[in-house]
Amino acid sequence: MSCNLRSVAEFSAVAPAWDAINQAHFQHPLLESRFVATALKHLGDGNEKIAVCGDADKPDAIAVVAPAKLGAWSTFQASQSPLGAMIQRPNIDTGELCKSILSALPMSCQILSLTQQDPAIAPRPDSQPTLNTLDYIDTARITVDKSFDEYWASRGKNLRHNMKRQRNRLGREEVELRLETLATPEQMRDGVQQYGELESKGWKAEQGTAVHLDNEQGRFYAELLEQYAESGNARIYNFYYNDVLSAVDLCIHNQDALIILKTTYDETVNTSSPALLMRREYFPAIFDNSEVGRIEFYGKVMDWHTKWSDEIRTMYHVNAYRNTMVAKLHNRG
User: Fold this and answer.
1) For residue 199, what pLDDT is reported?
2) Residue burial 230-242, b: 16+ Cβ < 10 Å; e: rest
3) What is the pLDDT of residue 207?
4) Could you give the C-alpha distances from 243 to 168, 178, 279, 287, in angstroms and in order?
C-alpha cells in the first residue's frame, strides 16, 4: 500500500475522499471531515501531516498524524476528540496500514501510535512482531431499537426507583423541571457560553479546564456545533430546576447515532442528579421517534453508565514499530 504525506493545510482537498469513506461504510458523526477540520483549526499546532494511503483518488485510509515525542508520531488527538483522527475502509489490515504510514514518515520516526480507536469502527488487530495494542477505556452505548417504555422496563429497579424518587422529592419542594432543546446555528454560540458558565462554577474552573468562548476549546465547540446545526445535526439540551440552569449536554448526531460530546451540571445540587434527570427527560423522544440508531457516551464508563446500558466495549491504542528491534526495545523499557 502506497502512502503520500501532505501538508495539513491541504486537508480541505482530501475532505471529500474522507467523507466518501465515512458515508459508504460508517455514517459516523465523529468521522465527518468537518469535525476533524474544526479540531485542526482550533486545537492543532500546524505541525500535523495528512497521510493518504492507497489510490490518491480513492484512498483506502486517511490519517492526520503529528510528531508526539522524540522518535514517535501519532494520530492527531485533541482531548476534545473522542477518536483519533483516522478513517479507513473496512477489511484494511491495520499492520499493513501502519507500515505504509511509517514508510512515508521521516526515518527518525520509529514508533507510530493510532490513538483512541473504537472496535465498533476498526476491529482490534492481533499483536504482531511490529505491532501491539493497549487498552484505552471502556465506553458505553445504548442501542435504540425499541420504544422507550420497553427500554426503561429493561433497566434495573434501582435506577427506575431512584429517578422516580428524585422527581417526587423535587415536586414536593415545588421545583419545576424544564427541558430546553437548542438546535439552530444561531443558538449554538449562546448555548456553549451557557455551558461554560455552568461548568465554571465547578471543579473544572479551579483547574482551568472549563469551557469559555474566549479559550480554544470554547471556540472549537461553538464553531463545531454551528456547523453541524447548519445541516440539522447538533443539539444542546438545557435542563432547568425552576429558572436555574442545572445540566447541559452538547451533542452532534445523524440518523445513525447521537454523540454526547460534553456534559456539565450544577455541582451544588446534592439531593438529586440533574444530568441523569435531564436524560430521563430527553431520551423518550429519541426512542419513540426512532431519531437515531444509538446513543454514544464516548467517556470512561462510570457506575451510572452501567445502570443505563449493558453495552460496554473497550477502546484501544495501537503502537506500530519500524522494525522488530525497536519493538523489543520499546516493550522491554
Assistant:
1) 93
2) eeebbbbbbbbbe
3) 60
4) 18, 8, 18, 27
Q: Helix, strand or coil for residue 210? A: coil
Please state, in angstroms and rounded to a whole number, the distance separating the CA atoms of residues 3 and 50: 10
User: What pLDDT is attached to residue 331?
Assistant: 86
pLDDT value of position 324: 94
User: ∠270-161-299 over CA atoms, to 5°?
Assistant: 60
For residue 51, give the H/E element and its range. Answer: strand 49-54
Q: If we measure between CA atoms, which residue out of 208, 210, 212, 233 comes closest to residue 222?
A: 212
- Which CATH number does the domain 145-292 belong to among 1.20.1330.10, 3.40.630.30, 1.10.10.10, 3.60.110.10? 3.40.630.30
**Residues of the chain below pLDDT 70:** 203-208, 333
Degrees to nearest 5, angle at CA 137 with 136 and 140: 145
Selection from 246, 285, 64, 262 nearest residue 166 by Cα: 246
Question: What pLDDT sits at residue 205?
Answer: 58
Which one, of 268, 263, 277, lies nearest residue 176 by Cα? 277
The CATH number of 3-136+316-332, from 3.10.620, 3.40.190, 3.40.630, 2.20.25, is 3.40.630
Q: How much is the pLDDT for 204?
A: 61
Cα–Cα nearest to 53, from 14, 16, 25: 14
86-88 vs 72-75, strand pairing mode: unpaired
Instruction: Take residue 26 and report the three cell numbers written for it.
Output: 460508517
Q: How does the average pLDDT of the chain come out, rounded?
A: 95
pLDDT of residue 201: 86
Is there a contact between 137 and 301 (Cβ–Cβ < 8 Å)?
yes
